[in-house]
């Protein structure tokens, strides 16, 4: 009997681990797609360190990626390692899913995505931001980076922020939101959409 209990626990752990491996793979695919990279482009960019077939196997959850390879992939993508992992809520959901299935409980629904934009938004050109000099660039880049991490959005070209974000940036510079908007225009950072 004790052996059956151990086997059952091992099987449950194995199933939960496999679910997490698939979740990591899905996250890897999301970040790669947001960067606009194909599997072949990653292979070429990495000087064939990350073969397209192996990266594809990671993304499909067929292979587990080691921590050291995850670190090198994060560096290649220009993101932190934690951005290549599923968020805590999702990770908890995957690990707990087996307990819920065993008890017959329904799986919790994923919360509806919150809109990042409202009708009053500003789009910032991140490629132009790299060319801006001075303290404005550093502060705006840090603020925008924080938003990218929250959204899990690493496309690297444009980012649309809410008017409340512009007000926050304006407050950091000690100016009104209108003055901040004009300054973004002067720096050629605002994109008219």
Structure description:
By secondary structure, the chain is mostly helical. The protein has helices at residues 2-34, 39-45, 52-59, 67-77, 88-103, 126-129, 135-151, 163-173, 177-186; strands spanning 121-125, 158-162, 190-191. Helix 1 (2-34) crosses helix 3 and helix 8 crosses helix 9.
Average pLDDT, rounded to a whole number, is 75
| Rg calculated over all Cα atoms | 21 Å
CATH superfamily of the largest domain: lambda repressor-like DNA-binding domains
Total beta-strand segments: 3
**What separation lies between the terminal Cα atoms?**
67 Å
Q: Please work out how many helical segments DSSP would assign.
A: 9
Structure classification: mainly alpha
CATH architecture verdict of the largest domain: Orthogonal Bundle
Oligomer category:
single chain
Which fold name is given in CATH as the topology of the largest domain?
Answer: 434 Repressor (Amino-terminal Domain)
CATH class of the largest domain: Mainly Alpha
SSE topology:
Elements: H1 2-34, H2 39-45, H3 52-59, H4 67-77, H5 88-103, E1 121-125, H6 126-129, H7 135-151, E2 158-162, H8 163-173, H9 177-186, E3 190-191
Antiparallel strand pairs: 1-2, 1-3
Helix pairs in contact: 1-3, 1-5, 2-3, 8-9
């Amino acid at each position: 009997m004790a052996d059956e209990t151990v086997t059952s626990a091992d099987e449950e752990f194995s199933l939960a681990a496999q679910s997490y491996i698939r979740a990591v793979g899905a996250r890897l695919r999301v970040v790669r797609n947001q960067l606009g990279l194909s599997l072949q482009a990653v292979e070429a960019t990495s000087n064939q360190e990350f073969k397209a077939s192996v990266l594809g196997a990671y993304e499909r959850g067929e292979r587990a990626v080691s921590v050291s390879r995850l670190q090198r992939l994060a560096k290649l993508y220009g993101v932190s390692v934690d951005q290549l992992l599923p968020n805590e809520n999702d990770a908890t959901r995957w690990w707990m899913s087996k307990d819920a299935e065993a008890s017959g409980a329904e799986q919790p629904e994923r919360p509806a995505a919150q809109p990042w934009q409202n009708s009053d938004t500003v789009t910032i050109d991140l490629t132009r931001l790299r060319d801006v000099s001075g303290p404005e660039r550093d502060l705006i880049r840090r603020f925008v980076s924080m938003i990218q991490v929250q959204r899990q959005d690493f496309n690297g070209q444009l980012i649309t922020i809410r008017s409340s974000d512009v007000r926050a940036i304006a407050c950091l510079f000690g100016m009104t939101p209108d003055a901040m908007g004009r300054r973004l225009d002067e720096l050629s950072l605002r994109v008219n959409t």
